[in-house]
């Protein structure tokens, strides 16, 4: 199979038929063998019914329905695991991404040796204040922290060589950083292509103001992961141990001072420095425990899916 088109969606019933017909038109014109994977990320509208209808008339349409909303990253992850094509395309379901870009993306992977080609919405049709300006800042920060030189990290339209999607694990809210994950997995041939971008035709964006907070947290995570390797929690644990040792050393010094050098006054109530040492020990212990907790979480969550699938179609 040439292509798997992975489409994560949440409440996009109005767009799905139009999007399906548009994609199928492009696939037939080019003679590609393909599958369209709709991942319904817990929609509460008629999206799943629409996907069922499309799957009934076109066996190349496959559906995965999540038990509830797990987020775009998890939907992409589920699509990546199910995809069978040589090249995997991801795109949004809201008709903002143009299926006519697919053949060129496919060619860049097949003939130019790219592992990943990311779309670049050079001309956007979104709100300037809420999207364009924040996204410029965000992309700049993402470039600085990750070392991946993309102009547009957040574009839903991307193409991947099969190995890439089978290797990487898209955890948490990391969909904006899939190129960074790919790069750290050793897929360094990452390209970017300017793509056409349309205004949202139906409904409205599924990401509100929380996107800034999530984006910021993701950014810190990326920075940590690229700086401290796969186990950023080691840093907190180590800081905690260091702080404890300093506090302990200081307390020990005060104790020895009281016992042998200046035996006047009481150890605790007459030596305020003792409280500083004690505080350092307590904070050190807490930091160490936080790091330890992080380690446990990282280890126990490994290789576990972060979503539950309710049902599938044509799989
Ligand atoms: N989406 C999803 N799960 C979510 C939120 C969004 O699968 O929890 C899908 C959404 O239906 C769309 C794509 O992710 O297909 C991009 O979302 P949206 O268009 O709202 O983002 P924007 O274009 O505003 O960045
Ligand atoms: Mg959109």
Automatic annotation (TrEMBL):
Glycosyltransferase 2-like domain location: 4-165
Glycosyltransferase is among the record's keywords: yes
Designated name of the protein: Glycosyltransferase family 2 protein
Source organism per UniProt: Pelagihabitans pacificus
Transmembrane segments: 235-254, 274-298
One Gene Ontology cellular component annotation held by this UniProt entry: plasma membrane
Gene Ontology BP terms: lipopolysaccharide biosynthetic process
Keyword entries, A-Z: Cell membrane, Glycosyltransferase, Lipopolysaccharide biosynthesis, Membrane, Transferase, Transmembrane, Transmembrane helix
InterPro entries: Glyco_trans_2-like (IPR001173), Glycosyltransferase_2 (IPR050256), Nucleotide-diphossugar_trans (IPR029044)
Matching CDD domains: DPM1_like_bac
């Amino acid at each position: 199979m040439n292509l798997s088109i992975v489409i994560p969606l949440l409440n996009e019933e109005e767009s799905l038929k139009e999007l399906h017909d548009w994609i199928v038109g492009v696939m037939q014109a080019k003679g590609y063998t393909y599958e369209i994977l709709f991942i319904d990320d817990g929609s509460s509208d008629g999206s799943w019914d629409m996907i069922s209808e499309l799957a009934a008339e076109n066996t190349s349409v496959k559906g995965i329905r999540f038990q509830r909303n797990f987020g775009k990253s998890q939907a992409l992850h589920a699509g990546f695991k199910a995809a069978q094509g040589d090249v995997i395309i991801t795109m949004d379901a809201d008709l903002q991404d143009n299926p006519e870009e697919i053949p060129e993306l496919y060619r860049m992977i097949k003939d130019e040796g790219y592992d990943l080609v990311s779309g670049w919405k050079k001309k956007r049709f979104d709100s300037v204040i809420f999207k364009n300006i924040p996204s410029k800042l965000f992309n700049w920060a993402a470039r600085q922290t990750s070392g991946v030189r993309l102009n547009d990290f957040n574009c839903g339209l991307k193409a991947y060589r099969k190995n890439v999607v089978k290797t990487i694990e898209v955890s948490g809210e990391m969909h904006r950083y899939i190129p960074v994950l790919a790069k750290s997995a050793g897929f360094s041939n990452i390209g970017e292509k300017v793509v056409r971008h349309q205004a949202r035709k139906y409904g409205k964006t599924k990401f509100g103001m929380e996107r800034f907070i999530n984006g910021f947290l993701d950014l810190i995570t990326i920075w940590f992961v690229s700086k401290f390797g796969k186990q950023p929690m080691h840093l907190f644990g180590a800081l905690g141990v260091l702080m404890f040792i300093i506090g302990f050393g200081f307390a020990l010094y005060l104790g020895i001072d009281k016992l042998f050098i200046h035996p006047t006054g009481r150890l605790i109530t007459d030596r305020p420095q003792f409280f500083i040492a004690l505080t350092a020990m307590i904070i050190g212990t807490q930091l160490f425990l936080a790091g330890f907790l992080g380690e446990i979480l990282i280890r126990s969550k490994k290789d576990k899916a972060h979503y539950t699938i309710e049902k599938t179609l044509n799989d």
